[in-house]
Amino acid sequence: MPLSRTYTSIWYNNFELEIDPISIEPGETTNCDIHFISVSINNIERKNIVFSLFPNPAKENVQFYYKTEFQDDRKMRIEIRSLDGKLVDKINLQKIGESFVTYSLENKNKGLYICSLMSDNVKLREVKLIIQ
């Protein structure tokens, strides 16, 4: 007979929710109290974000374009990762709102990369970059 499992969090609508520890026997259902851990960004803000790059594929430089409607002092950055998830580089953004950032591809290996626009630790948008 399978053993009971203890849960301290659940996933609901793409958010991790903290719950009071509960043990559930296989096939059993239960009610529990739910406490939000944090919600960093709401869906309305996500709809007003633009993130792109050109040229793509690129050889020497790539230019990132981003536009947000944030009005606070968020720490924003662009993360560049290899396909296996390793962080290749990060660019701390000095300006909130709308801007272009030129990034040198010197000493970067050819291949496919994932570039993410980040606000604190929340991924806002993602684009693929091909380095030739």
Describe this structure in words.
With 132 residues, this protein is mainly β. It has 2 domains: 5-36, no CATH class; 43-131, Immunoglobulin-like, CATH 2.60.40. The chain has one helix at 43-47, and strands spanning 5-12, 15-24, 34-36, 50-54, 61-67, 76-82, 87-92, 98-104, 111-119, 122-131. Residues 36-44 have low confidence and may be disordered. The longest helix is centred in the middle third of the chain and has 5 residues, at 43-47. A hairpin with a 4-residue loop joins strand 6 (76-82) and strand 7 (87-92). The termini are far apart. The strands form 3 sheets. The protein has a 4-stranded antiparallel sheet, with no helix packed on it. A 3-stranded antiparallel sheet has the order 1-2-3, with no helix packed on it. It is built from 1 helix and 10 strands.
What does the average pLDDT come to?
A: 77
Helix content: under 10%
| Strand composition percent | over 45%
Count of helical segments?
A: 1
Tell me the structural class: mainly beta
Unreliable stretches, pLDDT < 50, 5 or more residues? 36-44
Quaternary structure state of the chains depicted: single chain
Strand order of the largest sheet: 7-6-9-10
Please tell me the total number of domains. Answer: 2
How many β strands by DSSP?
10
Taking Cα atoms only, what radius of gyration do you get, to the nearest Å?
A: 20 Å
